Amino acid sequence: MTLLEKLKTPEIAEDLHDRGYSRRDLGRIAALLGGTVAIGRAAPALAQQSARAVVGAVRIGSNECWTGPLPAGAAAAMKIVTEGNRYEPNNEHEKLFAAVSAVEGLPATHIRAWPGSSDPLNRVAVTFASPSRGIVTADPTYEQIWRTGAWLGAKVTKVPLGPNYQHDVKAMLAADPNAGLYYVCSPNNPTGTLTPIEDIVWLAENKPKDAVLVVDEAYIHFAGTANAAKLVASRSDVLVMRTFSKLFGMAGMRLGLTFAAPTLHEKMMRYDGFQVSNMLPMTAVACGTASLPLAAEIKARRDEMVAVREKTIAHIESRGLKVLPGSHANMFMVDWKAKTPKQMMDAFLAQNVQIGRAWSAYPTMSRVTVGSADDMAKFRIALDKILMA
Ligand SMILES: Cc1ncc(COP(=O)(O)O)c(C=O)c1O
Fold this sequence. Notes:
Elements: H1 3-7, H2 10-18, H3 25-34, E1 58-60, H4 71-81, H5 92-104, E2 111-114, H6 118-128, E3 135-139, H7 144-152, E4 156-160, H8 169-175, E5 181-185, H9 197-206, E6 212-216, H10 220-223, H11 231-234, E7 238-243, E8 256-259, H12 262-269, H13 282-291, H14 295-318, E9 322-323, E10 331-335, H15 341-350, E11 353-355, E12 365-369, H16 373-388
Parallel strand pairs: 1-11, 3-4, 3-5, 5-6, 6-7
Antiparallel strand pairs: 2-8, 7-8, 9-10, 10-12
Helix pairs in contact: 4-13, 5-13, 6-7, 14-16
The structure holds pyridoxal-5'-phosphate.
């Protein structure tokens, strides 16, 4: 059965119809879930400014890790290449779930694995948002869900971050009390700021019962603080997303996780069974399984990043520029004052340094990713040259 045929089966078609989707929307939903329309990271051309890599430049524009997988992860991936003839040489998915379960304290039944975060984010949007049930996010935040909402015809409500650049969860609920999906990104992209767990719990407890709260924790290992994973053990209306693309240095290898009650996962999987989830390249699965339990190595990577970030921020501020405070992730936002983010991006590129872009909520700022100590030394030299020119 094709995806479109599946969407037309009475059980799914009725649910979609009840939530305000028309028959004409089914093709759009099938294109989104089938990956024939690129909404997420796979489609940099759709992003405001293309994230196309400048080969050879200092790459601090895409929030990638400055280095590859943890050595034990890379070794596990390389070892399994020699068994690439087997679909799954030794129950690798099960081993991944056992490792995640031990680290997060969640039953394996609540864990699913994906090739990154884009697909589950689209699925959860189709399943809980619709033309009659909107999406609420912070502003600025990671905008994939904005594009997905627009594609699905769901109203997207963007709520400014609070005074400490945390998600203003009360304002988010007030802005659309009947939304189908509330999205919290913590640490937030592009500000790096955290939203306290108590606020996340508050939103889970006060949103409409049939809405879902998605907590995107792509950068949580860089923060090293409390996370929302445990919420899914006691609630069936919260989905937590993780990715190995950031601290674990696996952006090109593609591995992500969702944590949710089995009923929630089943609902978002019903369109095409198990096509994308839990059918991953063994190299990524082996690498993730070996990396996740390495608490000391994770902390060392986090500490390295924090030291480089703070040194760089101090340098920028010593030049009279403002850095948005409170980042707990491998990024920060700089306010350039006299120059526009586009001018600064071009000026840095002329110095062979590729910085990130601006968000419309903060039009005078650029996002800068924290690279290696060497990358950031080059960034500082380039900045001084630009300011002196
Ligand atoms: C907050 C957030 N979520 C999810 C993603 C998607 O990452 P991936 O698809 O590599 O897992 C990103 C990527 O930058 C991100 O910043």
